[in-house]
Amino acid sequence: xxxxxxPVIPHWIDGARSESTSGRTAPVHNPATGEVxxxxxxxxxxxxxxxxxxxxxGFEIWSEMSMARRQAIIFKFRELxxxxxxxxxxxxxxxxxxxxxxxxxxxxRGQEVVELATGxxxxxxxxxxxxxxxxxxxxxxxxxxxVVGIISPxxxxxxxxxxxxxxAIAAGNSVIVKPSEKDxxxxxxxxxxxxxxGLPDGVFNVLNGxxxxxxxxxxxxxxxxxxxxxxxPIAQYIYETAAKNGKRVQALGGxxxxxxxxxxxxLNLVADQAVNAGYGAAxxxxxxxxxxxxxxxxxxxxxxKIKERIATLRVGNGAGNExxxxxxxxxxxxxxxxxxxxxxxxxxxxxxxxxxxxxDLKVEGHEDGFFFGPTLIDNLSTESRAYTxxxxxxxxxxxxxxxxxxxxxxxxxxxxxxxxxxxxNDGGAARRFQHExxxxxxxxNVPIPVPVAYHSFGGWKASLFGDAKxxxxxxxxxxxxxxxxxxxxxxxxxxxGINLGFPQN
Length: 505
Ligand code: NAD
Fold this sequence. Notes:
Elements: E1 8-9, E2 11-13, E3 16-18, E4 25-30, E5 35-41, H1 45-62, H2 67-96, H3 100-118, H4 120-123, E6 128-133, E7 136-144, E8 147-151, H5 159-170, E9 174-178, H6 185-197, E10 204-206, H7 211-219, E11 223-229, H8 232-244, E12 248-252, E13 257-261, H9 267-279, E14 289-295, H10 299-310, H11 334-349, E15 353-356, E16 375-378, H12 385-388, E17 395-401, H13 404-413, E18 416-417, E19 419-423, H14 427-436, E20 441-444, E21 460-461, E22 464-465, H15 472-478, E23 480-488
Parallel strand pairs: 1-5, 8-9, 8-11, 9-10, 11-12, 13-14, 13-19, 14-17, 16-17, 19-20
Antiparallel strand pairs: 2-3, 4-5, 6-7, 7-23, 12-22, 15-16, 18-21
GO biological process, one term: thymine catabolic process
Domain Aldehyde dehydrogenase: 21-485
Region (Disordered): 1-29
């Protein structure tokens, strides 16, 4: 319920903050202190309708504006974002908890997509074929869809919406972003930036809320497409519901990313990268590393190297202090921390050896923060739920295996297919891995890489429902629909006359 002492984070509709009248709110915490710092409005039916009406109005203006003018506004947005991104990073750290440099990193990766979008005229060009038959030309146009919905998770409040909205807007659509209710302020900040950049009112809208807001977007006939990122059960629900309602949909789900380490790999490189990818952002990344598959005899040596590195990690308030910035911040909520702890308990009960235990970590001066220390588990059974399910915390698991083939089989038998990596000096093995693995994004001596903006992001299996990945050329295809036009300008002197036969070349 709303609390008189904390501010209520509103919606952004028709180019302005829009206070909620729903009477429903959810608390927003600073996860490093555990304090409730705001309440976020949870939209009702009238507010969903207002956001949709605003986006429809925005679309009418924006989709008719020349590409040159649209491009200038996107360039301006990019320039403002680049100049003011430290403000945005502070908001991300306050509500999400990740360390400031990591918040800056997420903004930089989002900005890449804005930069790609500035080149949109080239990416939404149609094609032209002259004289396909005598005097007949065929060409294609790519037009925007209309109002598009973007529903995002808590773990990247800037980057994930930016996987979609720069491209959607560049292509001439208007958008409604439904941020995670756990860290909603970044989306409002970006709305204000668009306004400053000169985007017409109604083209970028923020609808805060929970399932009711999501269902409102899924059911609104005016919303033409849904781009969703979040957990797998919700992704599947979004995919099925949006498709049933006749919408275009891409729904990215959860992950359980494995790194396969062959015995010839450089174990210092492997240990560095496993620690970076396993514990960065406290493991709350869909491209976090969860499992190291160590082909024996390397496991003992690798575990020692990882342990040494974990001992150097500092956990604390992501905003930092006089002593500098910690390496990782807290988890998003107390409930999520309890869930992560439960998975470590399950791993232990199932015979896993807890090599480093972060369950009881306390951060001095931040006793009420949602911290969880880096945890390392050895010898985990691949039957354990702690192995098969996504944990989404700073928990790295080592599974000892005997061969390359066993590693490929384990990875391919998992439910998810988001990211994976192989560490080896054997080019032939790496090539075989990239060919045989059933995963959407692969690193070779690079841990679980997020592709650059001009390649697309997306996994396989339970990590992506739908057939369009995020951003890159696939992003432009998702946010446009094509028309093919066959045209003939008759020379009155050479009129073809009546012919009821089926037209042929
Ligand atoms: P989540 O599924 O709980 O929430 C995502 C969004 O769905 C939020 O906006 C939320 O308000 C909404 N939502 C939640 N429950 C809903 C319901 N019952 N009906 C309708 N909407 C609902 O996910 P999260 O906890 O915010 O994010 C973490 C998850 O996201 C992890 O599983 C992670 O792997 C995944 N993720 C995946 C990718 C990817 O690219 N594949 C990227 C980032 C995060």
